[in-house]
Design a protein that fits this description.
- This protein is an alpha/beta fold and 284 residues long.
- It contains ten helices and nine strands.
- Helix 5 crosses helix 6, helix 5 runs parallel beside helix 7 and helix 8 packs antiparallel against helix 9.
- It is globular, with a radius of gyration of 19 Å.
């Protein structure tokens, strides 16, 4: 390696990722942002190195760094791991041998109706359903139609309508993970947990992922959701809905909304939509 090389130690990581690194890894940098370096390894899901400020989640390793864009790492740089270190390009070496691991928050049970109503009041109307510019208003209208169609499909047990709704939301909007993708991610996460009528959602999102109509970041999040995995704030919010803890819901909602620019609110909208659909389908 030439030039200045930063050696740093990972402060935490997803067990699934860390276990995979033990076998060695070869890949390349997929994309770089202020707080995240995404790595492609030839597998369907990306691996992410994140700054200390990013919420822990599946397929990620957290570093004790303020930001990730100061170290000369560029798209296409080689990434190699021997199970002890992860070398990213020629300027970043991450020690991963003794990294503390995190597990998904395991939640059983059914969301409590009173808490679902409380969450609906706390979330308010997400920006994705409003919009200010003509483009944002157009996206907001399409999001509303997509969510309404998803509801119609699930409650009428109509596979074709549910699938069409999922595809109408896929890739809808702007950002690293567009609004429609975030909504589908939140809904798929709940569908994996609750099943029942929401199996329609799970199957429809699975078909979306197979067709790959959106970007790699969204597809990674969607694939994780279909396996019941999500970023920590979403898992904690869902656990609260199921009565698993008594944390202040205002704090939980604030943590969710802090994810990305609008991603957190959109994930919560998808989660809440699916939970309410489950309750409605049970009542019918």
């Amino acid at each position: 390696m030439g030039g200045t090389v930063l050696h740093t130690t990972a402060v935490g990581g997803d067990r699934e990722v860390l276990f995979g690194l033990r076998k060695g890894l070869r890949g390349q940098v997929h994309s770089t942002f202020r707080s995240v370096i995404n790595i492609s390894t030839g597998q369907p899901e990306l691996l992410s190195l994140t700054s200390a400020s990013v919420a822990r989640g599946p397929r990620s390793i957290r570093l004790g760094l303020d930001r990730m864009d100061h170290y000369g790492v560029e798209r296409g740089d080689a990434v190699v791991s021997d199970g002890h270190t992860l070398c990213v390009g020629e300027s970043l070496v991450v020690i991963v041998a003794a990294t503390p691991v995190w597990e998904d928050l395991q939640t059983d049970g059914i969301p409590v109706a009173e808490r679902v109503a409380q969450l609906h009041a706390l979330l308010g109307t997400p920006h994705s359903l409003l919009g200010t510019t003509p483009f944002e208003k157009d996206v907001a209208e399409r999001v509303r139609r997509g969510v309404a169609s998803l509801r119609t499909g699930v409650l009428s047990r109509d596979e074709a309508t549910t699938q069409s709704a999922a595809f109408s939301l896929a890739g809808l909007g702007i950002g690293l993970t567009p609004t429609g993708d975030d909504i589908l991610t939140g809904a798929a996460f709940v569908a994996t947990k609750l099943g029942g009528a929401l199996d329609l959602v799970h199957r429809s999102v699975t078909r979306v992922v197979e067709d790959e109509p959106t970007n790699d970041l969204s597809l990674t999040a969607l694939r994780c959701a279909l396996r019941g995995r999500a970023v920590q704030p979403i898992e904690e919010l869902y656990a609260w809905l199921c009565g698993a803890n008594t944390d202040n819901p205002n704090h939980l909602v604030a943590d969710v909304k802090a994810i990305g620019h609008t991603s957190g609110a959109d994930l919560a909208l998808g989660l809440l939509t699916a939970v309410r659909l489950h309750h409605e389908s049970q009542e019918r």
